[in-house]
Prior knowledge:
Number of helices: 20
CATH class of the largest domain: Alpha Beta
Amino acid sequence: MIGMEFIAEIRRRHFVGGESVSAIARDLQLSRPTVRKALTALEEPAYKRRHQPCPKLDDFRARLERWLDVEYRLPRRQRRTARRLFEGLQAEGYRGSYDPVQRFVKRWKASRASSPGVAQAFVPLAFPPGETCQFDWSREAVELGGIPQTVKLAHFRLAYSRQMFLVAYPREAQEMVFDAHIRAFAFYGGVPARLVYDNLKAVVDTIFAGKERQFNRRFLALANHYLFEPVACTPESGWEKGQVENQVGNVREWLFTPCPKFAGLAQLNAWLETRCRELAARPHPTAESRAVADCFAEERPLLRPVTASFDGYVENSMRVSSTCLVQADCNRYSVPAEWAGQVVSTRLTADTLRVVADGQLLAEHARCFGRGQMVCNPWHYLPVLEKKPGALRHGAPFREWELPAAIRVVRDRLLRHPKGDKAFVEALLLAREAGFDRLEVACELTLKSGVVTGPVLLNTLRRLAEPARPRRLEGVPAPALRLEPVADCGRYDSLREVRHAH
């Protein structure tokens, strides 16, 4: 780009001096197209930057705009800067640079300030009772067990009564969405006719023109079970569910400022449910003479009753490894040894993992939310121990096996002797049929005897597992004969007179 001084000289040399375009370009070391462009220019050319594409930010534009829209309603001191918004997007999975986020925030703020004194206009809405409920997620900072963490908070809000429900989860996954709906419908005591969502992946698979959506098939199973109509908002139009969007900012101010502290997630959710009931005593936003709880009492009978709870799991098929493990959500869980190498189904819920095959439940574990953890049930490996008893000493499933004190002492003493591991494995095999409580009693009796060996332990356990003998009936008189036979020993003398043929 050339300056105005060059443009004036070029026009003067051509129009006044009569020099050709080629001569001017050669003398000023410019291209001929540049010289021709300068001849037609009357003002200094301004550099117009084209719109710069930001492909990595495209998937996060709606979320970033929603954050900006929510924080625009907050006091200026409580709004996040572009740098803080960039860090929030990084926590959500954004892998781009900071500059596109900064430019987007700058353009968004400029669009809001382009018409000073003129606010965006909306039509006031009125919802009939029992019809509409709005749903959204938010990220909140808490301290659980002394560790600062970020939890995902599921927000529900009945549009008529403004009754809200909150529940926290470690992450924003589909099984968490299912569990949040189950808890919300139980809290409300019924199901509304419509639920309004963002276009989150757990709900919407594909966005078409207008309001057309291809909903997730598993989510449709939830909607069909509770018979509510799912409605997805227009992208980047958070005002279509403005009540719950506004609730996100209010809840952060009311409940999460300052940062709350709890022993665990269960205690946090119990506190949130209590606070939802307490906050219902606030005045209704439109009917100020009534409380939210009064409007909810009017709306509750119009909700559809819940006849049966939905089994909100996400299912995947996989093959059991040779170490009797299946992987789910970056962690490994044990399966009974007889299913090693076979295909099973894992069903993830918000707090459990179930392993199912051939219509039967094979294993159930409490779900872990870390990474690289291994959750094992030692009883799943008992058939392997029957063939390889030496694995009892160093097997990972048995190293941290929490056993009663008596069983642990007997095990440690038996492992000091040759083939003691085999004897303890035989005791475990007997306990599988006789019961773990009897094994504990057998170990206690073995310790009292002072002789801790495999045969003594097995003998004690077999005696405990032996079925009880029937009691002897006492006090019942034996039947008496009315005519007792007379003893006649002479009959035997007649046998001596019998002659035998030879």
